[in-house]
Structure formats: C-alpha cells, structure tokens
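Justification of resources, computational component.

The compute hours requested in this renewal are based largely on the per-chain cost of generating structure records like the one below. Each record pairs the submitted sequence with a full structure-token output. That output is archived, and it is also reused by downstream analysis tasks.
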Amino acid sequence: MSTRFVAFLRAINVGGRIVPMAELRTHFEALGLTDVATFIASGNVVFSSRAKAVPALAKRIASGLRGGLGYDVPVFIRTAAEVAAISKRQPFTGPQMKYSRTFVVGLLAEPLAADATKALLALQSDIDLFHVDGSEIYWTSRLGQSDSVISNNMLEKTLKVRSTFRGMNTMVRLVEKFGF
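The structure output for this chain reads:
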C-alpha cells in the first residue's frame, strides 16, 4: 500500500537556478514515485510511495536530484498526516502572536538535539520566539522574516543541522489543496 508524502526541498530555485515544476515532477517520477504533484515553486512535492524508511527515501530523492540537476538539494519528507498536524500546530499564545508578522515552520531531518535546542532558545528575544517540537522548529517574529536579524542560514549554522522553512500559510494551503 502506498503512503502519501510531501518532500520539502531546500533551495531548489535560488542562486540563479530555476527548475520548472514540470521538470521537478519528472525527476520524482523517474525514481518510481507516483501521483506526483508540485505546490508553488518553492520546492514542495506531493507524491505516493510504498517506501517505509523515510530517511532512506529522502536520501534516494536527494541522490536522484543531484544526478538530474547537478547540485545538492536537501530533502525533508513528511507524511500527509504529519503535514496536516503541522498546519494545525499553534505553539505560541494569543499575546505572543498578536503582533506577529512571520509564522514559519522549519523542517529538520531528525529531532533537534538538546544542545541545539538550547542554542536556538538562546536566540529568542521580544521580537523572535521559537518552539521545538520533534523535527520541527516553529518561529514567530514581529518582523517580516527577511527583516529579522535571524535568518535560515544563521539558524543552520547555530544548530549545525540542515533545514528548510515554510510559512504556516503555505502549510495550511498545501493541506487544503491536497485534502490531507
């Protein structure tokens, strides 16, 4: 039986590289994945697979993309049910969200280690708040994400792990579109 997954790709269309979504779907189909669909051009690929070992599946997709595109594309996979749960998660209180301009989720390959969690929480301020839940980092900011002193690259260097971030609105729209 197949499971419905979403692959969140990090930096698929940056640095002057543009991968058309039709081409991206073709790369996934070439790996034997089925029911492949893309959602907005930021590297969200919905697909079905019989694979049970998600880390091995992520490595297989990353390897296929490396071979097909000629550069590394980190891949973070969640089941449809996990994406639905993420889209409903609200780890911050009403007062914490009152002036929020940014609410994003960072997707990791595995749960954040205790020392990395401590380093992340040390970055909190009255502007930026974080919450760790397993393999996800929730971040809200009173500034727009691009205006914050904290960036995705800074977080990766601080935490010493690869990640990719998506706006919570994107997660909600993804769930709505695909009926997870």
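The helical segments are 21-30, 54-69, 80-88, 94-97, 114-121, 152-159, 168-178. The mean pLDDT is 94.
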